[in-house]
Amino acid sequence: MSDVQTAPTSSYDVASIREQFPLLKTLVHGKPLVYLDNANTTQKPQRVLDTLWEYYTTYNSNIHRASYQIAERSTHEFEMGREKVRGFLNAKGVEEIIFVRNATEGINLVAQSFGRTFIGEGDEIIVSAMEHHANIVPWQMLCEEKGAILKVIPINDDGELLLDEYEKLITHRTKLVGIVHMSNALGTVNPVEEMIQTAHAHGVPVLVDGAQSAYHKVIDVQAMDCDFFVFSGHKLYGPTGIGVLYGKRKYLEAMPPWQGGGDMIATVSFEKTVYNELPNKFEAGTPHIEGAIGLGAAIDFLNETGMDRIAAYEHGLMEYGKQVLGNVPGLRMIGTAKEKASVFSFTLHNIHALDLGTLLDTRGIAIRTGQHCAHPVMQRFGVPATGRASLACYNTREEIDALARGLIRVSEILG
Amino acid sequence: MNTGPEGCTETHLSAVSQEEHAAEIEETFALFDNWEDRYQVLIDFGKKLPPMKLEDKTEISRVPGCQSNVWLVADVKDTESGPVVVFSADSDASITRGLVAILWYVFSGQPVEKILTFDIDEFLDRLGLIAHLSMNRRNGLFSMVLRIKALAASRSRGAQEV
């Protein structure tokens, strides 16, 4: 539809990437699926599916406790999954990688363990106006329990944080900053490195919600210097039900366990129970074994494809999409930050988002409609809901063209 | 294109039976075999829905279970041939308004006994709507049906008690 100059991604063979994702061959209403709901969850490459199959067909067994061969293997593969995550995030040690169910659970763990230990009455927690509910509600629950105060960094009309206001919010009572790396509702990529420096200058630790960023950007938690980082496996081309909390060792060691049970203990007696070392201290009960192994396979896929190459390809796709969607009459883009990635959140004339999603579906186009678990963002922009198309490593310009044509057709139908 | 049963919007106290309305809707739907066109039919049904008074769109009249907003105000009116249910409804989403219109066509102005016995699930299934609607919309639709049927049932019981 248009000719946008993009980063050199000529060596990026999207057709061969797509070949690795069997679900992308699905027909919807007899039409090829155009899957543009990746911020919600991504599809899985064959190697992840094969890994899950192999686990259940050849070595399914519980980890950390058996003395037979297949259990040795499941333990080894599970811990390899942890090592792959460590490498993926460039964390210092595997003890800093805690497996949880998803990014949401990672944040809740920090709120319940770190928060209940180190945050008290009158203390302050800072989040931003573009947070997902997952990085709002756990803190509100903590504030309610402890009498702490939640402060909110405002955003401008482009969907960018007001950094001056952020700095003003930090006081001697600030105990934690929780900030989204990349907004699921706007696509904004926040300058977390700079924000972390600011917080650290005041001695305040920072949690980064990387649910959206981890599969679009190269993540280096040491370079970023965040104190906590969370992400979900299912957005990273991995299985659902597995997520990661990275925490700096000094914090994780100071934090009490948040769930009790097997695997998180060293010794148990009715007189005294001694907790296990990191990371097991935070992983009570049988974990999502195949999830961790499958996430490792997803990371193998990303490493082989190259996170930097994916980021460059997706950037080109987004620039193309901005131009193509910008030409759709009646489309208002919500979220026009200079630094943004992979998310197009928009309204079309005054068409109800649900109608938009339903009519696009008849053409095989899958987008998310609604409020994206970010009600405050919708309130900030004065829209009841948006349609959201979000990109992943396997999307193409043709799919963006199909979306644009679909939107024009929806306007005609509802015009 | 002919999109919507003729004459349905004229009056609440319809002389046309439920079955006739239902048959008309079904015939119209049958003219189209792809869902984009069927949604267009639904949207056009919705456009023929009599407007709901703004003051009737309240938190109380809002039907729970919808991703889009649906409002419903229903009442029982006595006529010479017995009590009939009349209602006024609307939605802020066009396709949902079309679904509301279908319910309006087959339910509004009909005798309470007919409303209780008409198998709306089967009818919507025949139109293919059950299979095609998202869970959200289905829940909203069924919440609406429940409200209408509950009203009809309360009146039906009341009539028996008198």
The level 1 CATH classification of chain B is Alpha Beta
Which oligomerization state do the chains in this entry correspond to?
Answer: heterodimer
CATH topology title of the largest domain in chain A: Aspartate Aminotransferase, domain 2
* CATH architecture group name of chain B: Alpha-Beta Complex
Number of strands of chain A: 17
The order of strands across the largest sheet of chain B is 1-2-3
Describe the structure.
The complex is a heterodimer of chains A (415) and B (162). With 415 residues, chain A is α/β, with parallel strands linked by helices. Chain A folds into 2 domains: 14-41 and 306-414, Aspartate Aminotransferase, domain 1 (Alpha-Beta Complex); 49-304, Aspartate Aminotransferase, domain 2. Chain A is built from 14 helices and 17 strands. In chain A, the strands form 5 sheets. In chain A, strands 4-10-9-8-7-5-6 form a 7-stranded mixed β-sheet, with helices on both faces. A 4-stranded antiparallel β-sheet of chain A has the order 13-14-17-16, with helices on one face. Chain A has a two-stranded antiparallel ribbon with strand order 1-2. Chain A starts with 13 loop residues before the first helix and ends with a helix. With 162 residues, chain B is of the alpha+beta class. Chain B has one domain: Sufe protein. Chain: A (Alpha-Beta Complex). Chain B contains 7 helices and 3 strands, in the order ααββαβαααα. In chain B, strands 1-2-3 form a 3-stranded antiparallel β-sheet. In chain B, a hairpin with a 2-residue loop joins strand 1 (70-79) and strand 2 (82-91). The longest helix of chain B is centred in the C-terminal third of the chain and has 27 residues, at 135-161. Chain B is globular. Mean pLDDT of chain B is 82; it is low at 1-13. Classes of the chains: A alpha/beta (415), B alpha+beta (162).
